[in-house]
Design a protein that fits this description.
Blueprint: E1 10-11, E2 14-15, E3 19-20, E4 26-27, E5 37-43, H1 54-59, E6 83-85, E7 91-93, E8 100-101, E9 108-109, E10 112-113, E11 119-125, H2 134-150, E12 155-158, H3 159-162, H4 176-183
Parallel strand pairs: 3-7, 5-11, 5-12, 6-11
Antiparallel strand pairs: 1-2, 4-8, 6-7, 9-10
Helix pairs in contact: 2-4
Length: about 200
């Protein structure tokens, strides 16, 4: 993959308007990968608790597994997403979009398996099925638009769509129609639920 040229929004796959915190959990994209999919997730650690630094700690392999009983169930996980959007709209970035973050797991979308290979993973601070904040939708729409200026984005899906039965996020609380309206992208870009 030849990286796109630098511009006012991007430097080496890093979004200039995100707070950068490098994760060790990434790898090279396979040769010829076309980054055309955005995968939306929801996360909070422990589930339902917002505002802490546990997600950042998880993505950088610094989470104290003994700090909460729930953490024992995910102990040893080495995961990352490219982006994390907090409840107040603050955007963090952990992996260059030119690299492969570890967010999707076993997955398939638009006739291709291994969605990590050619997608950008965006985590929203929230709980599966719960509502998201207006500031998150605003930040997400801006981020999606910026990604589409740099990469040939043609698809947006939730983790629940690329790993049905195994994952259920962001869930029923995510307003797909709102995101589509904010971006003014064709409905065919999104999961069929908003068509």
């Amino acid at each position: 993959m030849n990286p796109p040229p630098e511009d006012a929004l991007w430097s080496g796959g890093w979004y200039r308007f995100a707070r950068r915190l490098d994760s060790p959990n990434f790898g090279a994209r396979p040769p010829g990968a076309v980054i055309d999919l955005l995968v939306l997730h929801s996360i909070s650690l422990p589930p339902g608790c917002f505002g802490g630094e546990e997600v950042q700690a998880l993505f950088t392999n610094r989470l104290d597994w003994d700090a909460h009983p729930y953490f024992k169930s995910i102990e040893g996980m080495q995961v990352s997403a490219h982006f994390y959007v907090r409840r107040g709209g603050e955007v963090w970035q952990f992996v260059s979009c030119d690299d492969r973050a570890w967010h999707a797991g076993a997955s398939s979308w638009r006739g291709r398996d291994n969605c990590n290979d050619d997608s950008v993973g965006i985590e929203l601070e929230g709980i599966e099925g719960g509502p998201f904040e207006p500031a998150q939708y605003e930040a997400l729409a801006s981020l999606c638009a910026a990604l589409a200026q740099r990469y040939p984005i043609r698809h947006v899906a939730g983790h629940e769509h690329i790993a049905p039965g195994r994952k259920h996020d962001p869930g029923a609380g995510f307003d797909w129609a709102r995101l589509q309206a904010s971006l003014a992208w064709d409905a065919s870009t999104f999961p069929p639920i908003i068509s």
